[in-house]
Write a structure and sequence with these properties.
Elements lengths: L1 E3 L4 H7 L2 E4 L15 E2 L2 H6 L9 E4 L4 H12 L4 E4 L2 H7 L2
Parallel strand pairs: 1-5, 2-3, 2-4, 4-5
Length: 94
């Protein structure tokens, strides 16, 4: 599973990578600064996500839940990446 540094995000967005927000509903208090589909981790774990077979960038608050989700998707044959440090790293400017 590839970890994407926050600095790489603009380039990946320009390339058209599909962003998937895996945070639980109670953590989704503010909109993301880029388009993303919301698919909570539980749906990914159960294989009930319906995601297309395109490169996926998974995001969460700190980057841990997205890593778990990426591993599940990779086990299904997806190309899945995780945003290192999560959305918190974007707001901190890391």
């Amino acid at each position: 599973m590839r970890k994407v540094r926050p600095q790489e995000l603009p380039g990946l967005l320009k390339q058209g990578v599909k962003v998937v927000d895996v945070r639980p509903a109670e953590r989704r208090t503010a909109p993301l600064p880029f388009p993303a589909e919301w698919v909570p981790l539980e749906k990914i774990q159960k294989g009930e996500h319906g995601l297309p077979r395109v490169p996926l960038l998974l995001v969460c608050e700190r980057g841990l839940v997205s890593q778990v989700a990426a591993l599940y998707l990779e086990a299904e044959g997806y190309e899945a990446m995780s945003l290192e440090g999560g959305l918190q790293a974007l707001t901190e400017g890391i």
